[in-house]
Amino acid sequence: MTAQEASLLVHCAEEGETSAGKLAKVMGRDKGKITRFVDRLEASGFVSRRNDSRDHRLLIIKATSKGLRFAPQLRTRFEEIRSQFFEGVLNVDIDKLETVLSQLHANAERLCVEKAHKNTRS
């Protein structure tokens, strides 16, 4: 299991059920990549998926009982790694970093939208 697949599993376990679109947004990946993650996790028995009964285009993903048992271990490991990664860095600096990264992400999204809009007018 890759780190991104593990992250997807933890997110599914914590959310109960979610959509591929929401996972794509939260994880910063396209839906195709999320689908490939889900394919592998489903083949391993960690998640299940179904189409939404109201909108068959919408894919609902849910952690299985196996995934729910495994997710807390992954969450703990992620927290250990984060703690080691930020060792010696002040919380205020981590907060600043998160703010800067969020703004950079928002700027990148805006630029992509502007570029797409510009291309459709051409």
Q: What share of the residues does DSSP label as strand, in percent? A: 5-15%
CATH topology of the largest domain: Arc Repressor Mutant, subunit A
| Mean residue pLDDT | 89
Give the count of helical stretches: 5
Computed Rg: 17 Å
Shape from CA axes?
flat
Secondary-structure element series: HEHHEEHH
Q: What's the count of strands?
A: 3
Q: Name the structural class.
A: mainly alpha
Distance between the termini: 43 Å
Q: Give the helix proportion (percent range).
A: over 70%
Identify the CATH homologous superfamily of the largest domain: Winged helix-like DNA-binding domain superfamily/Winged helix DNA-binding domain
Query: In order across it, which strands form the biggest sheet?
Result: 1-3-2
Outline the biggest β-sheet: 3 strands, antiparallel
Total number of domains? 2
Write the layout of secondary structure elements.
Blueprint: H1 3-15, E1 17-19, H2 20-27, H3 31-43, E2 47-51, E3 59-63, H4 65-85, H5 91-121
Antiparallel strand pairs: 1-3, 2-3
Helix pairs in contact: 1-3, 1-4, 2-3
Describe the structure.
This protein has two domains: about 80 residues, Arc Repressor Mutant, subunit A (Orthogonal Bundle), CATH 1.10.10.10; about 35 residues. The protein is flat, with a radius of gyration of 17 Å. Helix 1 crosses helix 4 and helix 2 crosses helix 3. Helix content is about 70%, strand content about 10%. The model has no long low-confidence stretch (mean pLDDT about 90). The chain is built from five helices and three strands; from the N terminus they run H-E-H-H-E-E-H-H. The longest helix has about 30 residues. It has a three-stranded antiparallel β-sheet with strand order 1-3-2. With about 120 residues, it is mostly helical.
